[in-house]
Each structure stands twice: as C-alpha cells, then as structure tokens.
Amino acid sequence: LVNNCTWLSNVAPTYAPKGQALLSATVIGKPDMSDEELIQAVTSELSGWFGKSQTDTWRNLAVQRIPYCQPPQAPSTDLERSVSLGNGLYVCGDHRSAATLDAAMKSGRRAAEAILGL
Question: What's the DSSP call for residue 41?
C-alpha cells in the first residue's frame, strides 16, 4: 500500500515542534477506503517498518488525496529515461525515473550534469 515515506522534519526542522517529527507517507493509486480506513491501513503497514511501539505514539495530521500526484509506473516503465530531449533541451523530474522525491532530485542532478557536460 505505502509506496514511500520520508521524515520531512529531518530536512526542515521547523516543520515539526521541537522534540517531534513529521512523517509523510505516499500511497499510489486511489484506495477504495475512507480516510479512517486508509489511516489505519497505512499505520498498520508502517508499524512493520518502524515497530508498533513507535507507530502507537503517532497521530495523523491530514490525509491529502491528490489526483495525478505521481506518474503511473506499470512494470514496463523505463526507470532510467534520458534527461536529454535533443536539440539542447533537457528535462527532469520523477517522470524520468522512479516516482519518488529522491529520484526527482537525482534526475535534476543528471540534467545539470548533462548540461554542464560532466
């Protein structure tokens, strides 16, 4: 169910009160469940990652259902698409690799390196 998660407050400490942390979890697709059911399912899955003793202390702040927030990635998806479109045009983003923040940043670096000839 959970595609990825990231501790936003590790990157931007002001995103959470001192002594607390903010986690963002991403679910791909349109789960056919209520927000409460989705929170319960995601928390249950994350308890396998972080331990139930940890997730029992968490509270949900919001559920955001964002259509088309990530590009579709069927099993045949090319996860290393070129950042060069030809004729001096370059592109970057999570649509060039895996649909993650890390991959989006990596593709930005790949585009910059291509432009600089590195």
Answer: H
* Whole-number pLDDT of residue 60: 97
Rounded distance between C-alpha atoms, residue 4 and residue 99, angstroms:
9
pTM over cut 0.85: no
**CA–CA gap between residue 39 and residue 58 (Å, rounded):** 11
Query: Can you give the length of the chain in residues?
Result: 118
Report the distance separating Cα 106 and Cα 108, nearest Å.
5
- Mean pLDDT of successive 10-residue segments in the chain (118 residues)? 93 95 92 97 98 97 88 79 94 86 91 94
6 and 23 Cβ atoms separated by less than 8 Å: yes
Distance, CA of 24 to chain centre: 8
Torsion of CA 72, 74, 78, 79, to 10 degrees: 70
Give dist(CA 110, CA 112) in Å, integer. Answer: 6
83 in Cβ contact with 114 (< 8 Å): yes
